[in-house]
Amino acid sequence: MKKEIPLRRRNSHFGFKLRHVLRSFILGAVLALALVALVACGGGGGGGKKGGGGGSDPVTNSGGGGGVGDSGGSAGGGGGSDSFDDSATADTAVSTDVTISIVISDPAITGLTSPASAVVTVIVNVFDGGSEIGTGTSLTLSLGVWSATIADLPLSIPLDFDAHGFNITPTEIFAGSNTNVSLTGSDTIGINMAPLDDGVALQFPRIVAIINPTAAINQTVNISADLEGNASETLTVVFTSDPPGAIVTPNQSPTTTGAGNVTVNTDYVANSTIGTYVQSISVTNPQGNSVANDFNMVVAVSSTDVNVNLSPVLGSVIGNRANGTGTVTWTATVTDDVDDPATDLTYLWSFVQTAGDFLTASFTGTGGTNNANPGVLVDYDETVAGTVQLQMIDLDGGVTTATFPLNAGQFPDSVVTNP
Fold this sequence. Notes:
The chain is mostly beta strands. The protein has one helix spanning 7-41; strands at residues 95-104, 121-128, 131-138, 140-142, 145-154, 159-166, 172-181, 187-195, 202-203, 206-213, 215-216, 220-228, 236-240, 251-252, 261-269, 275-284, 290-300, 306-309, 313-321, 328-335, 346-355, 362-363, 375-378, 385-393, 399-406.
């Protein structure tokens, strides 16, 4: 006979089973969530009875060690690992290679001595906020363009690029810059260079005065010359002597002051014969333009006289070619002492041609010499090259001679184009 269970006991037993199922379900859900968290954060392995698994710190991404179990449990799990793989992070580019490209423009038509064809070396310096980070990179000329690649320049930092062009001397005759350039990668930087003397007259050093005492036979005396030029430029001074060898220190390279003046001295050893001997001084500036003066040294029985030679002083020369013609007009600015104003001077222009396709250029006048100021050079085209010479003679017989180069392409055949 089937034994009946009271209803209250049956309900109580059913409730116990339901609670047990719910508790198991909740515990399983909690364990599942914990497992997900451990996987996400790199948590440690499980511990024993009392030893908890070590989790990962979500801020520092560092794993914590597991707790220590009791005699019934095993040691706690190891610390969690970083949830990010550092090895997978790519390096960020911080530098780049830069290609420099330079086209040198020919000078304007008036008074210039440095055409682009005279440039034989171009270098580029790179600056970061005034600090030089790339020094003296040499460029290579190809098809009229100077270029080079500068490696490992910083990105996203304003940089300044300075270019310098030198002739064969080497004297810097062209310069240009490109400033405040922020590189982005695989950049090409263009720099326009212009002649340093763009738009200005030819500049000449000046021999202001020569002080030369009368010398006794076989005596050594001092000759001094007062010179002028641009501020803080180095001049080349050469003395020549008749008879040869009488001047002890013929060659000097003085630097002018900030005011543009300097005095040079040289020793003169007098001849053993009484007479008057012609000496010469020439002065050349960094542009390659020069002036020269002749002066007399008197060798006498005694040496009591001091002579001061004040020859004409050349300030500048400006050349101007009328467009479409073969005529170049040269105008000289000259000063002399008060007794000989510039209008009383004799001007002798001449030209020695060294290159040219067809024409033979010369100054107007007898024998290719123009006795006037301005001087007029005729039969000129842009292929003509050579040396221009100007002699200025005052009423006292003082002579100043100036020479300067006329380079091919100095005055283009046409500088006006119609669009």
